[in-house]
Inverse folding.
């Protein structure tokens, strides 16, 4: 699903955010990307998502060379990738159904179809019964589940999560991890960046560890 070959990323002349990173994540896999703050985790996810371009090297995502695709094809690529961040930004004045459906407004999807798909996505994270609630009426873990539903609405082949449980307590963290495992068991490849070693150990999945921009263990 993700094949990175000798990837380098330099934001400025002095330092290298990623150095000679070669990693493969197989289709259907659930994998962690770990390492201390500044190791390059977020940078790697941004390259996969084509938010940044590598300084050197190639990245193939779902068979497409994302380092070479023309700008016009970036939206198509992004529709096939769901992304979840630590600071899940939900619109406070919109219901959670609207928050999830919102993503589809930029696409040409009818209003009825938007609601139907948003409902299905909320159902997959177990929050359809709260679809008319507003974000602030939900717990932090529930809000993060809404953000995950939003990431899942286009039925992505790949789900990227960047420190998705950084602000959550241990119980909610496990709840989110269980949800990622369910998403994974339905066929989506999942890559989670985190520095939470305890959580990684509890889940027992493959770990790609970065340190100062280099892969140190697989
Ligand atoms: N937009 C940017 N401009 C300049 N340097 C950056 C930028 N983003 C990240 N960096 C640097 O790249 C390195 C890796 O950062 P990052 O990928 O955010 O690591 P992590 O997510 O593992 O904490 C850090 O040294 C960071 O300061
Ligand atoms: Mg980061």
């Amino acid at each position: 699903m993700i094949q990175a070959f000798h990837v380098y990323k330099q934001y400025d002349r002095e330092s290298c955010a990623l150095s000679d990173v070669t990693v493969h994540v197989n289709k259907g896999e659930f994998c962690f990307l770990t390492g201390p703050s500044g190791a390059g985790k977020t940078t790697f996810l941004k390259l996969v998502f084509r938010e940044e371009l590598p300084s050197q090297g190639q990245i193939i995502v779902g068979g497409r060379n994302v380092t070479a695709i023309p700008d016009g094809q970036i939206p198509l690529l992004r529709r096939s990738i769901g992304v979840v961040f630590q600071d899940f930004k939900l619109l406070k004045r919109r219901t959670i159904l609207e928050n999830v459906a919102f993503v589809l407004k930029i696409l040409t999807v009818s209003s009825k179809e938007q609601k139907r798909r948003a409902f299905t996505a909320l159902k997959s994270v177990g929050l359809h019964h709260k679809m008319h609630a507003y974000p602030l009426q939900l717990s932090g873990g529930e809000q993060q589940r809404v953000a995950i539903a939003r990431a899942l609405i286009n039925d992505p082949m790949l789900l990227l999560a960047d420190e998705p449980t950084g602000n959550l307590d241990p119980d909610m963290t496990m709840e989110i991890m269980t949800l990622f495992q369910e998403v994974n068991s339905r066929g989506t490849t999942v890559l989670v960046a985190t520095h939470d070693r305890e959580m990684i150990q509890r889940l027992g999945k493959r770990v790609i560890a970065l340190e100062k921009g280099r892969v140190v263990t697989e």
Notes: Helices lie at 41-48, 74-79, 96-101, 111-124, 140-152, 170-185, 197-203. The two ends are 17 Å apart (CA to CA). The beta strands are 2-9, 18-25, 30-34, 56-61, 64-65, 81-85, 158-162, 189-193, 206-211, 214-217.
